[in-house]
């Protein structure tokens, strides 16, 4: 039996925006807020797949390649704290339809291939801190970064030398 890999579909943040977000985070949150997510790991998950065999991965990759998604822009103008999961996040108050459709089709493919999907509604977000289980003073607003999504990717989540690292396996373009 081949080894399974921990996979998810996501939108990446451009490197420039990753730097802006971590600078803003450092200026707006105390160090004890939680475990900060590394700049290179900032992303918006579209569908979490869990531990996936090579066979399932191939089926999901084929299905992703058939998706005819549209480009979209979203404004990262929302911010919040989920104490249960210990996540401090930024997100959007108005998720574009093209984003919701892309996540929905990826999540259906995942479910059809036996990847358990959360019953919670899709809430697009970028996790900024993990292990944030104590009350957090949330800043009143974000700078409202605009993310122009022109592609989506399949990532492998790796845990090496005590750190989580995401490795991009494949990217698909979004159309006009
Ligand atoms: P999160 O940022 O809200 O924690 C890789 O683990 C990505 O998949 C993370 O961005 C994580 O979202 C998301 N994800 C969704 N469901 C998950 C789960 N059950 N376990 C781990 N990560 C999950």
Write structural notes for this entry.
With 176 residues, the protein is α+β, with helices and mostly antiparallel strands. It has one domain: Cyclic Phosphodiesterase, Chain: A (Alpha-Beta Complex). Helix content is 24%, strand content 38%. It is built from three helices and ten strands. Strands 3-1-9-10 form a four-stranded antiparallel β-sheet, covered by helices on one side. The longest helix is centred in the middle third of the chain and has 16 residues. It starts with a strand and ends with a strand. The model has no long low-confidence stretch (mean pLDDT 97). It binds adenosine-2'-monophosphate. Adenosine-2'-monophosphate binds next to strand 3.
Number of strands: 10
Q: What general form does the structure show?
A: globular
Question: How far apart lie the N and C ends?
Answer: 41 Å
Q: Topology as H/E string? A: EHEEHEEEHEEEE
Poorly predicted tracts of residues: none
* Strand arrangement across the biggest beta sheet: 3-1-9-10
Here the CATH topology equals Cyclic Phosphodiesterase, Chain: A
Largest sheet: 4 strands, antiparallel
Number of helices: 3
Q: Determine the CATH superfamily.
A: Cyclic phosphodiesterase
Number of domains: 1
Q: Which CATH top level class fits?
A: Alpha Beta
Write down the overall mean pLDDT. Answer: 97
Hetero compounds: adenosine-2'-monophosphate
């Amino acid at each position: 039996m081949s080894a399974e890999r921990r996979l998810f579909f996501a939108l990446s943040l451009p490197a420039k925006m990753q730097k802006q977000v971590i600078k803003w985070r450092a200026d707006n949150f105390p160090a004890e807020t939680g475990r900060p997510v590394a700049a290179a790991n900032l992303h918006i998950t579209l569908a979490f797949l869990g531990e996936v065999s090579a066979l399932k991965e191939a089926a999901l990759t084929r299905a992703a390649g058939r998706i005819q998604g549209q480009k979209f822009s979203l404004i990262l103008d929302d911010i919040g704290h989920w104490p249960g999961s210990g996540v401090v996040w930024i997100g959007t108050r108005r998720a574009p339809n093209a984003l919701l459709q892309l996540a929905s089709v990826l999540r259906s493919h995942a479910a059809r291939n036996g990847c358990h999907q959360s019953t919670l509604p899709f809430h697009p977000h970028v996790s900024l801190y993990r292990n944030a289980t104590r009350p957090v003073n949330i800043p009143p607003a974000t700078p409202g970064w605009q993310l122009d999504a022109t592609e989506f990717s399949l990532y492998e989540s790796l845990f090496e030398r005590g750190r989580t690292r995401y490795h991009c396996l494949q990217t698909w373009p979004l159309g006009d």
